[in-house]
Specification:
mainly alpha, Rossmann fold, 2 domains, five-stranded parallel β-sheet, two-stranded antiparallel ribbon, 9 strands, 5% strand, globular
Length: 624
């Protein structure tokens, strides 16, 4: 395969936005599309190699997997090996257990499935996962298993039939992605069936260039390459976490990448740009840079309790490139030399590395992230952190869209909201309010804001803020809203919610006029490792950072705005933050020797008990 320097330049265009997006720089709000660019490049390069060998009749599936093992595994093993000590010393048992589960998923090429089941890619908690980025490697690895076998089975039918079948798969995958972007965005984002079409964009480019030359018209190449570059740049700058993805919107960066592969030929401006030595250099180390950046950012956020200064973020981004050069030069390059490292060694090394990750991950999971090695006193102190997320969901899951029992005399209350509605459900049960009232609940995903109701049709209306439940369980939810004696709405409200919050509440009121709105809460940064490694009095003083104070002030401002809106609408309001805080400037996450929030926002069992008792007093007072 003839080397194309501009393809390495294109890799640089893919990896830099991803790094800057994960660092949190708002100018690169769509930087996540760099992964889509990588998918197209991968589809192009892999297909070019395979069909060239198939055309010559010398394709070997063993050779193919040997090349993939040399390319992917050594650098990945090295980055994870370096990350392990930091994970052990800096992560608390709960996070370390999660890290162990990530190791198991990496070793079985199923990271995308794990992170799909755990949380959304854009959720705040995702920033703290050192191996989150391996989801895209899993997608490619699954593709590497399926695609060569598909070509081996269909090649005898002829190129036209192969391309026709691939076109059908492309349309099915794209259609599924478009549906999933609005109905099940987490699955659509992470899984191969809704990402496969992006790889196929590169596949089609490879087939075209195998049997055709580049376009002869230099002006047309100039225009189309500029268009392709602009499409990628537009996606990086304009897209954000609310963009329905990876549906039709993803056509913009992927087709843009396809145009660059086909048209960024010599003597075009984009070819000259992407072939610059410095750009190509970043492209050469792009795989290692992709591997390094997320662990560096995640561990820094763990260590600094989430508040990483912009200057340090820039330093970490640069560090990821420096570490990438090191691992490219001393790990990637040596493992590609077939004369030095034979195939037998590569397969043995790969098997050993995968087994080590698998066993380490299983051990971390089985020991609850090393919890069993702490003293009984510290194990008791950590009980507020271990599996706290499972607790958060438990009561809510049991009452999700539970039918009200209209034969009793209890008041029927429907809880609607994001993950904070799960907190509210736990508060209700800890305070035994369920003995007085009957509860049902509906969860709006973390990627959503406030529920929007179509007043005329009484159905949930899609918005850019919510693209999961918009077309799911609509009738059941609306019927439950109509049946409820009162609706409680709760969320981690944010500034951008304020613009459409009033309209949302008005629409809910059009279904049921008995409404109570709960304000947002923030209880301060939490790091369980610091909690157990330091004297509690020292920890109590050290956890409050300037960034926390800013969030406290923002939270107070949002609750003040909510209060005004609810007064205007004539509905009840409870300031959730006020259930535990005495001041807008400070809110202790440490009450009577216990932590009340395991992540600064969601409640531990003890926190649900504390806030639940306060809530019970308020609710019963209002009832009287």
């Amino acid at each position: 395969m003839k080397y194309r320097a501009e393809i390495d330049g294109l890799r640089a265009l893919a990896v830099l936005p991803v790094i800057l997006f994960h660092a949190g720089f708002e100018s690169f709000s769509g930087g996540f599309v760099g992964v889509d660019v990588f998918f197209v490049i991968s589809g192009y390069l892999i297909t070019t190699i395979i069909i060239s060998e198939m055309a010559k009749g010398n394709f070997s599936i063993v050779n193919f997997y040997e090349r993939r093992a040399r390319r992917i595994l050594p650098a990945m093993f090295f980055v994870i090996a370096v990350s392990l000590p930091f994970a052990w010393f800096w992560l608390g048992p709960s996070d370390l257990k999660d890290f162990g589960q990530s190791l198991v998923a990496v070793s079985t090429f199923s990271s995308n499935i794990l992170f799909w089941r755990e949380s959304g890619y854009f959720d705040t908690v995702a920033e703290l996962k050192p191996l989150l980025h391996t989801w895209s490697l899993a997608v490619e690895e699954q593709y590497y298993v399926i695609f060569p076998i598909f070509l081996m089975l269909t090649w005898r039918l002829g190129v036209q039939w192969v391309v026709t079948l691939l076109a059908i798969i492309f349309l099915l995958s794209l259609s599924l992605a478009q549906w999933g972007a609005y109905n099940n965005p987490f699955a659509a984002f992470f899984l191969l069936p809704t990402r496969g079409w992006e790889l196929l964009v590169g596949v089609f480019a490879a087939f075209y260039l195998k049997y055709n030359t580049h376009l002869k018209s230099q002006p047309l190449n100039q225009f189309l390459s500029l268009l392709g570059f602009s499409m990628i740049a537009y996606s990086i700058i304009v897209f954000n976490k609310t963009t329905p993805f990876p549906g039709l919107y993803a056509l913009i960066p992927t087709l843009g990448t396809g145009l660059l592969i086909l048209c960024a030929v010599p003597k075009t401006f984009i070819h000259s740009l992407l072939s610059m030595k410095s750009i190509v250099g970043i492209g050469l180390i792009s795989y290692s840079a992709y591997l390094w950046h997320q662990p560096l950012l995640a561990f820094a956020r763990h260590r600094l309790l989430g508040e990483v200064p912009d200057l340090l973020l820039i330093v970490l981004c640069i560090t990821s490139l420096v570490m990438a050069w090191f691992s490219w030069h001393f790990v990637e390059k040596p493992f590609r030399h077939k004369l030095i490292l034979k195939r037998k060694f590569i397969f043995a090394f790969s098997s050993l590395g995968i087994s080590f990750l698998l066993l380490t991950g299983l051990w971390l999971n089985a020991t609850d992230g090393g919890l069993v090695y702490y003293s009984p006193e510290k194990q008791k102190a950590l009980s507020n952190f271990i599996n706290a997320n499972d607790y958060t969901e438990r009561q809510h899951r049991e009452i999700t869209l539970k039918k009200f029992n209209k034969t009793d005399n209890k008041k029927d209350i429907l809880i609607i909201g994001d993950s904070h509605s799960q907190d509210l459900a736990n508060m209700v049960f800890e305070a035994e309010l369920n003995n007085t009232y009957e509860f049902s609940a509906f969860y709006i995903s973390n990627s959503c804001g406030v529920l929007m109701i179509d007043r005329e049709n009484l159905k949930i209306r899609p918005t850019v803020h919510c693209n999961k439940e918009t077309l799911f369980l609509n009738n059941a939810l609306v019927n439950q809203m109509l049946a409820a004696d009162e609706i409680w709405v709760v969320a981690r409200w944010r500034n951008d919610d304020l613009n459409y919050m009033k309209e949302s509440l008005e629409n809910i009121l059009s279904v049921n006029t008995n409404l109570m709105v709960f304000g947002t809460k923030y209880l301060g940064s939490v790091n369980s490792k610091w909690y157990i490694d330091n004297d509690l009095s020292l920890w109590k003083k050290s956890f409050l950072h300037e960034g926390d104070r800013d969030i406290f002030k923002e939270t107070a401002m949002i609750n003040d705005s909510l209060l005004e809106i609810t007064k205007l609408l004539g509905v009840k309001f409870i300031n959730t933050q006020g259930l535990v805080c005495n001041s807008n400037d400070f809110c202790s996450n440490y009450v009577d020797g216990n932590i009340i929030s395991y992540d600064g926002s969601h409640l531990t069992p003890y926190g649900a008990r504390v806030l639940g008792s306060q809530l019970k007093a308020l609710v019963l007072k209002q009832a009287n």
